[in-house]
Amino acid sequence: MDRSESLADDALRVRVSGLHPHEEVTLTAGAADYQGSPWTGRAVVTADGDGTVDLNHARSRSGTYRGVDGMGLFWSMTPRRKGAGKDTLRFKAPEQQPSYKVTLAVKAGGKQIATRSLTRRWMSEGTIYQALRGERNGLYGALYLPPPHAPRRTPVLSIGGSEGGTSNRLAAAVLASHGHPVLALCYFGCPGRPESLENIKTEYFATAARFLERQYGTRNRRPAVIGVSRGTEAAQLLAQTYPGLVSDLVLYAPSRNTTPGYPHGVAWTRDDKPLDLTPIPLDHVNGSVLAIAGDDDRLWQSADAARSIGDEPSRPGRKRESLVYKNAGHAVGWYPYSPTARYAMNALSNRYMDLGGTAAGNAHAQTDGWPRVLKLLGG
Predict the structure, then answer these.
(1) How confident is the model over 114-129, as pLDDT tens digits?
(2) pLDDT the model gives residue 351
(3) Alpha carbon 123 to chain centroid, angstroms
(4) Residues 330 and 355 sit within 8 Å (Cβ to Cβ)
(5) Main-chain phi, psi angles of 307, to 5 degrees
(6) How many CB atoms sit inside 10 A of residue 329's CB?
(7) Which helix (H) or strand (E) holds 361?
(8) Which of 18, 156, 299, 356 would bridge 329 by S-S if both were Cys, CB 3.0 to 4.6 A apart?
């Protein structure tokens, strides 16, 4: 292992030497979720003629992933307990658990011959967390600020989906560790905000963007917005309706239209009037737009929406780009190398939703898409 500690989105080189030439070995990676339940990734590989296994080159013939993938042990981890097929590897909020431990082990001939532990961090040393509970501009959510020594990059407004609450905290902390002040905004489903996704004022998102601009704006760029699922509607409405407030958009598993409120009514309003747009226009958006989707999204037609967004005309110097990944589902977004689930629990309906895609498909989408997101954000 080239490093014993790294950010959660960093690729690592896993290499084992001192084996017998062409020896078959089993490599495992283990971690524990927020409940202490074990998760394991596994690969059966063959050492080369020098007695070395390098996962950047070695092919896994069986295990939790197949083929050549240097980080396959990490993203392919699955729970050991039975009946956990709809689970995902969950952790506590990053301010409560800024890192997690992964234990790597090597077995040969039925015996464990080597182990090594490493730390994966969401929050680098010095990253600051602040809870927003309405006392600052009436905003609710979680604010993650870069370490004082980190370069200051574009502030980011993160808007989650129909799960409500303050979502995507882990990704927000990772972005802050890269130098981006990030506000993971709660717009419903937390104390002080509506209980459901109904009649959400677009003015609220504008207030959040102004707060980021005033407190953490850079000289060259206004806040960027990352929307996920239903949050992509709010992101597009914000950029279209308030074009002077925000710059670039990243839209994960997007919608192209405003969809009804959940469970009833309308979702979005402006000046207390319903917003019902098919499609949501983007002609006033000042920044670039990157839409990312999987072609096997089982919740809605995000692939078609992403392509439509990518085909939109743009202003000079501003791009409209779509990335649609094969065998990826609704969980196409955010940083790579962490397991994603095929199913997710909807807090309002208390039912599991089929997100589509495969673990390998989602992993490829995240590995390829995340560097493009960081580049767009200037990180």
Answers:
(1) 999 999 999 999 999 9
(2) 73
(3) 15
(4) yes
(5) -65, -40
(6) 28
(7) helix 359-377
(8) 356
Residue at 231: amino acid letter: G
Q: Distance between CA 236 and CA 247 in Å, rounded?
A: 11
**Residue 275 near residue 202 (C-beta atoms within 8 A):** yes
Report how far Cα 157 is from the mean position of its chain's Cα atoms: 14
Reference 180, options 202, 157, 196; nearest CA is: 157
The DSSP secondary-structure symbol of 331 reads: -
Read off the tokens for 366. Answer: 């995240």
Task: Check if the beta carbon of residue 169 is closer than 8 Å to that of residue 118.
Answer: no
Q: Are strands 249-252 and 351-354 parallel, antiparallel or unpaired?
A: unpaired
85 has pLDDT over 60: no
Pair of tokens at residue 112 = 């464990």
Distance CA(19)–CA(58), nearest Å, equals 14
Beta-sheet pairing, 62-63 with 111-121: unpaired
User: Cβ–Cβ contacts within 10 Å for residue 244, how many?
Assistant: 9
Instruction: Tell me the three state secondary structure of residue 337.
Output: coil
On whether the pTM is more than 0.85, the answer is yes
For residue 119, count other CB atoms closer than 10 A to its CB. Answer: 14
Pairing of strands 224-228, 156-159: parallel
Q: Which amino acid is at 63?
A: G
Full DSSP string of 174-216? HHHHTT--EEEE--SSSTTS-SSBSSEEHHHHHHHHHHHHHHH
With beta carbons less than 8 A apart as the criterion, state whether 370 and 9 touch: yes
Cβ–Cβ < 8 Å for 70, 13: yes
Which tokens go with 107?
């077995």
| DSSP notation for 278-319 | SS---TT--S-EEEEEETT-SSS-HHHHHHHHHTS---TT--
The confidence score (pLDDT) of residue 84 equals: 47
Secondary structure of residue 118 in the 3-state scheme? strand
HSE-CB for 145 with a 13 A CA cutoff: 12
